[in-house]
Specification:
- Belongs to the esterase D family.
- It holds the Pfam family Esterase.
- Its EC number is 3.1.2.12.
- This protein is an alpha/beta fold and 295 residues long.
- It has a single domain (3-275), classed as Rossmann fold.
- The protein has helices at residues 38-41, 61-67, 70-77, 124-140, 158-169, 192-202, 206-210, 214-217, 240-244, 247-252, 274-291; strands spanning 3-11, 14-22, 29-36, 48-54, 80-84, 145-155, 176-182, 229-234, 262-267.
- The protein has a 9-stranded mixed beta sheet, sandwiched between helices.
- The mean pLDDT is 98.
- Bound molecules: glutathione.
């Protein structure tokens, strides 16, 4: 585990750290940004929870760091943020043979690929949920930062899918205290982005797709408590009707223990951009802050 601090930037009341490290899961150097809030620097809290934010197609850790304004909310409530990259990168990492932006580099879909030539590097599920929290914990070695236990997950579009899938796949161990998403792909097996990615990374076996598809996963995990998933979706998002289709998640939970526990907020006129994401970050921050015991 070797981390490099590429830069340390004063931002709001805390600092944004741009880091890179060698990942054993992806076999590449991975970039990750971490925001440590003012409470960390002023020693105002002895256990700062962490929210993991998974970005969407074509993003690097910079898009969200620069355009979502999570930092203001992190200072307000006292949580840290982790902004991972969306895929492995490098000259030897295979990309999309069709040169698209919806598969390959910048589009790892947060799954563990089983198909060649992707399986070697595209182990994003294990990277995000296992390796990254562990190595961050070891790198910071600071008991006031909680990368492992009191944690939440959120994301945008492909990252919204990654957040919901990761939350549900770890639901029995309650790895994540809460989950929310901005314009997520909720049923990847049934939409073009997901069909292309799952076909390429997982092959043609329907059972392999189901293992990651939130609309299937949610039917297999029992919610006997008060957990809710918060989702915002703009009605003028060009991807809303063909790729995202949040209503498919509502349909899949009918008659299950999750019925009535998905808070889907359709927001009139908003698009798919960070103008949309940043507008609702304060609500998602409050939702997670509550579930992380900060308010
Ligand atoms: N690159 C695509 C857009 C893909 C896209 O909208 N990506 C979303 C996530 S799915 C995003 O966050 N883009 C980066 C940004 O807006 O900063 C295009 O050129 O049309």
């Amino acid at each position: 585990m070797s981390f490099k601090v590429e830069s340390e930037i004063h931002c709001c009341g805390g600092k944004l750290l741009k880091l890179s490290h060698d990942s054993s899961k992806t076999g590449t150097s991975m970039n990750v940004n971490v925001y440590l809030p003012q409470q960390f620097y002023h020693k105002q809290s002895d256990k700062i929870p962490v929210i993991y934010y998974l970005s969407g197609l074509s993003c690097t850790p910079q898009n969200v760091s620069e355009k979502a304004f999570w930092q203001l909310q992190a200072d307000r409530f006292g949580f840290a943020m982790v902004f991972p990259d969306t895929s492995p990168r490098g000259e030897d990492v295979p990309g999309d043979p069709a040169n698209g932006w919806d598969f390959g580099l910048g589009a790892g879909f947060y799954v563990n690929a089983t198909q060649q030539p992707y399986a070697k590097n595209y182990q994003m599920f294990s990277y995000i949920h296992d390796e990254l929290p562990t190595v961050l914990d070891q790198f910071f070695k600071n008991p006031s930062l909680d990368f492992l236990d009191n944690i939440a997950i959120t994301g945008h579009s492909m990252g919204g899918f990654g957040a919901i899938a990761g939350f549900l796949k770890h639901y029995s161990s309650k790895k994540y205290k809460s989950c929310s998403a901005f314009a997520p792909i909720v049923n990847p097996s049934k939409v073009p982005w997901g069909e292309k990615a799952f076909g390429g990374y997982l092959g043609s076996d329907a059972a392999a797709w189901e293992q990651y598809d939130p609309a299937s996963l949610i039917q297999k995990v029992q919610n006997n408590g008060t957990d809710r998933i918060l989702i915002h979706q703009g009605t003028s998002d060009p991807f809303y009707r063909d790729q995202l289709k949040p209503e498919l998640l509502l349909e899949s939970v009918k008659g299950t223990s999750w019925e009535g526990k998905i808070d889907l907020e359709l927001v009139e006129g908003f698009d798919h951009s960070y103008f949309f994401v940043s507008s609702f970050v304060p609500q998602h921050a409050q939702f997670h802050a509550k579930n992380l015991g900060l308010i």
